[in-house]
Specification:
By secondary structure, the protein is an alpha/beta fold. Helices cover about 35% and strands about 15% of the residues. It folds into 2 domains: about 150 residues, 3-Layer(aba) Sandwich (Ribosomal Protein L4, Chain: A); about 40 residues, no CATH class. The protein contains 7 helices and 6 strands, in the order ββαααβαβαβαβα. The longest helix has 17 residues. The relative contact order is 0.18.
């Protein structure tokens, strides 16, 4: 089983933790990662684009001119798609782009992403992140001490003080262990776990 160091917020190693091989030591399956990221991105699309067809355009109830004798092309409606200001043919309508992949595939993708972060040495585990008051400056100092520029921080329970201290820092995102997802793991260069969050994730993914 893989072994990882556990650090305090002063970047000092305080202990080691034995990680579950099924979660952090699994083979990286890039195909399922791609499927799940595509699913997440599709679900995030607004799908609000909308155009009007010829039946939805106002006006145009009368035939513009008689059928024959004018020398012009036949026209039965001034809101025809070939006229300026006319309706759109097969234009976009509000819709959902969301689709689903099987639960087993989503789980496999998450395990693959976690294992990839561990194998690439882009994962850090903290014993705790104590903060008694909201201080963005102090939080930034800890990030700089570890050299984190673009990091995802995974916590075990709600920590309002910690969350409010981090929310104004660019490229730093904090989520609970229940919200860990493949897209965020790939988007951020480094992932930082609080030690209890690691135990929660392992419990869920090996259940």
């Amino acid at each position: 089983m893989p072994i990882a160091g556990v650090y305090d917020i002063e970047n000092k190693k305080v202990s080691d933790i034995q990680l579950n091989d099924l979660v952090f030591g699994a083979p990286v399956n890039e195909d399922v990662i791609y499927q799940v990221v595509r699913m997440q991105m599709a679900a995030g699309r607004s799908g609000t684009a909308c155009t009007k067809g010829r039946s939805e355009i106002s006006g145009g109830g009368k035939k513009p001119w008689k059928q024959k004798g004018t020398g012009r092309a036949r026209a039965g409606h001034s809101r025809s798609p070939i006229w300026r200001g006319g309706g759109t043919v097969f234009g976009p309508k509000p819709r959902s782009y969301a689709f689903k992949v099987p639960k087993k595939v989503r789980r496999l993708a998450l395990v693959s992403a976690l294992s990839m972060k561990f194998k690439e040495d882009r994962m850090t585990i903290l014993r705790d992140f104590p903060m008694e008051e909201i201080k963005t400056k102090k939080f930034r100092e800890v990030m700089d001490l570890f050299g984190f520029k673009k990091a995802l921080i995974v916590i075990d329970v709600d920590r309002p003080v910690l969350l409010k201290s981090s929310r104004n820092i660019k490229d730093i995102k904090m989520i609970r262990s229940e919200g860990v997802n493949v897209y965020d793991l790939l988007k951020y260069d480094h992932v930082v776990f609080l030690e209890p969050a690691v135990n929660k994730i392992e419990g869920v993914l090996t259940a």
